[in-house]
Each structure stands twice: as C-alpha cells, then as structure tokens.
Here is the input.
Amino acid sequence: MGKQSISWLPNTYPQNGMTWEARFARKDCTPCLHRAQCTRSKREPRIVGLQAREQYEALHAARQHQTTAAFAQQYAPRAGIEGTHEQGIRRCGLRQSRYIGLAKTHLQHIATAAALNLVRIGEWLVGTPQAKTRHSPFARLKEALT
Here is the structure.
C-alpha cells in the first residue's frame, strides 16, 4: 500500500528457502484497511520473505513449464498412478500395514491391489462414470462466476 519497509535482515529460518526478510512498521500495518490481504497476524506487522534471484527464477520457470500441454501429457501417467494410490489409501487403509514382516505386508499389498481391481470392475459393469478431478470450493466458485 505504498509503505516502505523498515529493515531487511537475513532470514532467521533459512530452511524455508527465503534468504531475506523485509519487515514493515507496526504503525503502518496496524491501522491499514488492507491488512487482511497482507497478513493473517492479528498484532504483528507484515514480514515478507524473499528468495535469492536464482531460486526465484528457477521456481518461476518451473511453474511456467507446468502450464504447458507437453507437461500435462508427461504428467498424465503419474496422475493416474496417484489416483490409484489415493484410492488404496482411502478405501483399504494402505498407509499402515496390519501385519508384521515384509512377506505379510507384501501379501496385504497384493490383496489390496486385487480388491481395488474388483471394485473398479464392479463400477465398470454397473456403468458408474469415472470421477473427474476434484476442484476446491474456491475453484468451483470461480468457474461458476465465469
């Protein structure tokens, strides 16, 4: 909102990828009408984390690449595998093994895969359409408004 930062300091928690922190004054942030757009903090002023230029440009390039049709085609097989894995987790409790030992755990994985195949065959025979990718409530609202 046109205010200048009061200090730039090296980040105190560099594991998050930010190398610098730009801090703003409490007297500028507290009465600001647009505070909710800048920070979720109730009392503290805005602190902006900044990456090194090389990291920022690499992240920006990767995000741009993810919007291309070539990336979508390359990612499609992985998306299908992740859908199957998620179905196994939700429907069959795939995250935890019920048994102790590698052989019994392997047997559980085979039984889970067979169960998922039977469920999918049953849904195919009944004619249940495959689910489309879920959208967040915000994305659904955005689609409804456009």
Remarks:
- The longest strand covers residues 7-10.
- The helical segments are 26-29, 35-38, 53-65, 69-92, 102-126, 137-145.
- The radius of gyration is 24 Å.
